[in-house]
Design a protein that fits this description.
The chain is an alpha/beta fold. Helices cover 32% and strands 23% of the residues. The protein is built from five helices and nine strands; from the N terminus they run βαβαβαβαβββββα. The strands form two sheets. The chain has a seven-stranded mixed beta sheet with strand order 1-9-8-5-4-2-3, with helices on both faces. Strands 6-7 form a two-stranded antiparallel sheet.
Length: 168
């Protein structure tokens, strides 16, 4: 069973998701790890959600995280790791998912720029606890604006619904 939410933009999807994850995680989990090369909307959404942004290096060839640096990170106050999947090129999503599980943090698979990309037949946006897509100008599929948020987690979906009910 999957859950899908349509929102006004990819940035709105990121903000909504991070608010929901922050509520689910409780106190102390206030940092979001983002790659050093990503869209400005990612850290902007995290800051708007009341979280701190921690920027980590990428591999200049793959544009995915430097996995050695990510593995050495102190995860004690980390809420989530966010992928980038820029230019239709998925990050090393299986490896990031494993690291997130090992450290008990959420994995947000940001496929705003990779709708349709796959790794071993699995779609970018589907590797994390939740994923998101953008339908904004310049994306693989556009409706001029819009975003899609997906999750298989009942708890995350319930909290997203709660966040949507509380918003003006």
């Amino acid at each position: 069973h999957g859950h899908c939410f349509f929102v006004s933009s990819g940035r709105a999807a990121m903000y909504l998701l991070l608010r929901a994850l922050r509520t689910l995680a409780g106190a102390g989990k206030t940092h979001v790890i983002v790659p050093s090369y990503t869209c400005y909307s990612v850290p902007a959404a995290a800051i708007r959600a009341g979280l701190s942004v921690r920027v980590l290096d990428i591999d200049p060839v793959t544009l995915s995280y430097n996995l050695e640096q990510l593995a050495r990170t102190d995860f004690s106050n980390v809420l989530a790791i966010v992928s980038a999947n820029l230019y239709g090129m998925p990050n090393d999503l299986p490896a990031i998912a494993i690291l997130a599980r090992q450290h008990g943090v959420y994995f947000v698979d940001d496929a705003a720029q990779s709708l349709g990309a796959t790794i071993n037949g699995l779609p970018a946006g589907g590797f994390g606890d939740a994923g998101l897509y953008s339908l904004d100008k310049g994306k693989n599929i556009t409706s001029i604006q819009g975003g899609i948020l997906v999750t298989r987690s009942e708890a995350i979906a319930a909290e997203i619904r709660n966040e949507l009910e509380q918003s003006p």
